[in-house]
Amino acid sequence: MGEMAHMFFGKIGIRLFYLCIAVYLYGDLAIYATAVPKSMRNVVCESSDGGGNYSSNNSSTQTNSTSDHGDKCYGLERDAVYRILVAIFAVLVCPFAFTNVQKTKYVQYLTTFLRWLCFSLMIVLALIRLGQRKGSGKPSVADFSGIPDLFGASVYSFMCQHSLPSLITPLKNKKYVTSILFMDVGVALLFYSLLSFTAVFTFSESQIEDVYTLSFKHITSSGISTFLALYPVFALSASFPIISITLRENLKSLFQKDGREFSWAVEKIVFPLFAVLPPIVIALSTTNVEMLVSLTGSYAGAGVHMLYRPC
């Protein structure tokens, strides 16, 4: 996309393009750095009290209110456990920003399989509960106050422009590219719609977590609920290094002047640190994944979607 931006924009437009991409990727990494430790925290803390205290509290309170701060987890506050897990996540994953991740084909195969399995499980479990007439969701016909969040989540969910050039360019025969992409987006829309509509009728508003996979601890066996809760840990942790390296390279392009080379320290240390530290700081300051998705999609995502549509 960067090379294509040089074809359409002047110097200022190119800088704004890289800035917009960088802000979006920062939001992406912040979401991952928050969702993974939060999922781990919920699994760890649920095991610390046998699942009883945690589940009863969460079924009657909203996700981002008292449940993050009120209960004890192995003698510690839940938000303290969350921050410890953010630190562990940073130590384990952030060093990859200093390297070049290659040959990730099999990792992507594994995460794709887990993603399909997880999506299918959530849809089937919700449909079973609805078939048993145990759904507790009573959504209103329309709630216009939710449009900003819906807009941000929709933009973020279908954000793929930054990946399309690398997917399409190697293809020799591009005759059916438009049809394939249309079908791909259509399948994604079908899955998102099934996931959303089954969710709003299965769960009440207070039961739906901002990390949706955590909502199923109330309605299914401990093994399946643990797998769903840990899904973001495996899938998002595998994506974090790749996105952090992409952000690192975009930051280099943003600050590069007249093709000058950066010093070794700036290129190998400063840019990787600038790529991973802000998302970790954001993750330490909030557990509200819903807010991060809304902000990332509504602003940076919308900018990439609309302002830089030619690329």
Automatic annotation (TrEMBL):
Report keywords, A-Z.
Glycoprotein, Membrane, Transmembrane, Transmembrane helix
Question: What is the species listed in this Swiss-Prot or TrEMBL entry?
Answer: Paramuricea clavata
Q: Does the keyword Transmembrane helix apply?
A: yes
Q: InterPro entries attached here?
A: AA_transpt_TM
Segments carrying the region annotation (Disordered) are 50-69
| Domain Amino acid transporter transmembrane residues, every copy | 2-303
Q: Name one GO cellular component term.
A: membrane
Q: Tell me the protein family, please.
A: Belongs to the TMEM104 family.
Q: Which residues cross the membrane?
A: 12-33, 80-101, 113-130, 150-168, 180-204, 224-247, 268-285
The protein here is known as: Amino acid transporter transmembrane domain-containing protein
Q: How does this chain sit within the bilayer?
A: Multi-pass membrane protein
Q: Where, subcellularly, is it found?
A: Membrane
Quote the biased-composition stretches of kind Low complexity, using this chain's numbering: 54-67
Major place of residence: membrane
Superkingdom per UniProt? Eukaryota
